[in-house]
Amino acid sequence: MQRYKCIISYDGSGFSGYQIQPNKRTVQSELEAVLAKMHKGESIKVSASGRTDAGVHAKGQVIHFDSHLPISEEKWEMALNSLLPEEISVLSVKKVDSTFHARFNAIGKEYHYVLQLSKRRDPFQRNFSYLYPYELNIEAMREASCFFVGTHDFTSFCSAKTEVEDRIRTIEAIDLILDNDFLTLRFVGNGFLYNMVRILTGTLLEVGNGKRKPEEMAELLAKKDRRLAGRTAPAQGLYLWKVFYE
Asked: Which of 57, 105, 127, 161 is least surrounded, with the fewest CB atoms within 10 Å of its CB?
């Protein structure tokens, strides 16, 4: 039995998230259906670095699975891409040690949130960015983002449905990159809580439109109350960009 590590990308628009759910189309269900077909009906479990919500995309999601099929890495990539739906692409397949785990060996992640700063709706961007046609003070957003860099309890910035009790995470960098009509918020950290990037983005937008002051971010962190932070930004602007390993 050989373990394989794959980097995959997907358009999350047509999926009910990454993780398998009863009677719903998910990225994991499509992956496992293809692997079952290749293994003549045998169930092959796929593990990922983490789950993404409905509508969220991935540029560099990492998965692993075990197989006894004697196929080279190149042939695995070709076979998977020939059978998977067009919204999913396998970027690489590598043999790894049996101790490798896509989730538990991950030491960090990078997410991008893409905003389209335009007064006019672009129908071709509706599933891939969040249209934000209002004025933004990007320098104020940058100032506010500095309060989140470092190690903090992010209880105020995760969904009330978050199951883990340890809400302490370390954000290494938040960059705001303006390119014509698009503003990308780049988040790099050792891990992110449920909806954390989308809530941080929604809160930074409230700073950008003048509803909050940058220095209020310190108080929001200290209060540990989700009700005090901004709204959750829509799913379609979010991308799991990269997963880091030792």
From this structure: 161
Known catalytic residue at 53: yes
Which of these is catalytic: 11, 53, 122, 181? 53
Record the pTM: 0.95
With cut-offs at 50, 70 and 90, classify the pLDDT of residue 164. confident
* The CATH number of domain 108-245, selected from 3.40.50.720, 3.30.70.660, 3.30.300.20, 2.60.370.10: 3.30.70.660
Written as six digits, the tokens of 56 are 């969220």
From the list 234, 232, 54, the residue with the least C-alpha distance to 160 is 232
Per CATH, domain 2-96 is 3.40.50.720: no
- Distances, alpha carbon 1 to alpha carbons 73, 176, 199, in Å: 14, 44, 42
